[in-house]
């Protein structure tokens, strides 16, 4: 009933048949392969994280650009345009602010916005009422240009000065530019 130590099964010490686990070279190769795979996966994840924010930034940029364009298009075509609309002689049309128009709240026609910029140093982003909205749009800026521009297909009999092209450029924190363009006519 009792077994002596001599009768217990002996542990195999044969190197070939008793080996368990990995060799050092197998372990090193496994670490290298896993490292390369993890590096590739992390690169894809980081790219997706960066690109994932892009639509959000674009939406905010479109919001800023469209708000500015809507504000401008609600103004008269020119300083001398009658309230309610109407055509003026093109010799009276001009680009730029008139006397007494020192800021955006004074702008009353589309060309007054030519050269306007906000979100740049010294000029925070503002809404149409002049309220600072920079906290909601950190890193964004806007600029406006207005010029005379005759679009393709316009009647040949009409002078170029019957058309004003308005361009609002919004720059996102990532440096992307969105340009909104509209043409307002002397009618």
Report on this structure:
The chain has helices at residues 15-18, 24-73; strands at residues 117-118, 141-148, 163-171, 177-185. It is of the alpha+beta class. Strand 3 and strand 4 form a beta hairpin. It has two helices and four strands. The chain has one domain (43-185).
Residue share in helix:
25-40%
Gross geometry: elongated
Give me the count of strands: 4
The helix/strand order is: HHEEEE
What value does the Rg take, in angstroms?
35 Å
Structural class: alpha+beta
Number of spatially distinct domains: 1
End-to-end distance = 117 Å
Q: What is the count of helical runs?
A: 2
Sequence of strands across the biggest β-sheet: 1-2-3-4
Residue share in β-strands: 5-15%
Stretches with pLDDT under 50, minimum 5 residues: none
Major pleated sheet: 4 strands, antiparallel
* Average pLDDT level: 87
